[in-house]
Specification:
mainly alpha, 4 helices
């Protein structure tokens, strides 16, 4: 029903927000992937990596390495 649509929209928004926060933390180079997963409330680093890759097309470690090359 309509409630399910709202739940999916909220979940999708929160996931996108958490990934955007992860990108900021990854770019800072101050935290490991596991620490970022913990900070953002993912159940573990493996799940965080899966969600990140689904959204960004690359793993968090690849993203962090690419950010290192750009700076």
């Amino acid at each position: 029903g309509l409630g399910d649509v709202y739940k999916r929209q909220i979940f999708a928004f929160l996931e996108k927000y958490r990934i955007e926060q992860a990108k900021i933390l990854l770019s800072s180079k101050q935290f490991t992937v596991t620490q970022i997963a913990d900070q953002l409330g993912f159940c573990n680093g493996f799940y965080f990596s899966k969600v990140f890759k689904k959204n960004e097309g690359i793993s968090p470690r690849e993203y962090q390495a690419n950010r290192n090359n750009l700076q």
